[in-house]
Amino acid sequence: GSNALRMSSGIQIKLKTAACKSKTSSLLCSPEPAIKPQSKPSDKLNPRTIDPFTTYSRPPSAFAAMYAKGGIPCRLVHGSVKHRLQWECLPETVPFDPLLVTLAEGLRETKHPYTFVSKEGFKELLLVEGATEKAIPLLPRLVPVLKAALAHSDDEVFERGLDALVQLSAVVGPSLNDHLKHVLTNLSRRLMDKKFKEKITAALQKLEQYGGKVS
Known about the structure:
By secondary structure, the chain is mainly alpha-helical. It has a single domain (59-211), classed as Leucine-rich Repeat Variant, CATH 1.25.10. Helix content is 59%, strand content 4%. It is built from 10 helices and 2 strands. Strands 1-2 form a two-stranded antiparallel ribbon. The chain is globular, with a radius of gyration of 34 Å.
């Protein structure tokens, strides 16, 4: 009787052990999770967006990439009152080609510090001695870039493009006249906007002043 009791209890222990092992192995080896996440109907309508802080974020613009690589020879210096540019070398020694065109392209940027660097860099480069002779050969490439800024939907980009156009006109004078027809359409469209009417009118007066009677 005691032997039979021992055998039955031993069989029960073996059966329990085997059951535990099979349950453990099924959990470890099962290709599917025990609980499947329920998909919501909204998942099809609203796919998961990309986290902007991951490595899959939007690639930088050409100007931003060049600035990051040190291709723009000036840097933003944060001041207590206002910001300024610090040039790695004297602006007089910097080749206008292609830097002036690159800075003009940067006027379409909408993020800091690229907005400040492009606007201030373009302005300061045109102030150097001999800027007129250096800028005139670049007009066929500069004007289309400024036209793109003037056609931009962002108001601040448009204003930067307008300021740059007036600055360029002050430097190259009548040489800009033949190119003005390419930008006047963009100016006339914005002229209908009340908030730009005064600024554009003043800009046109300056273009006429710098361009002479022909303009």
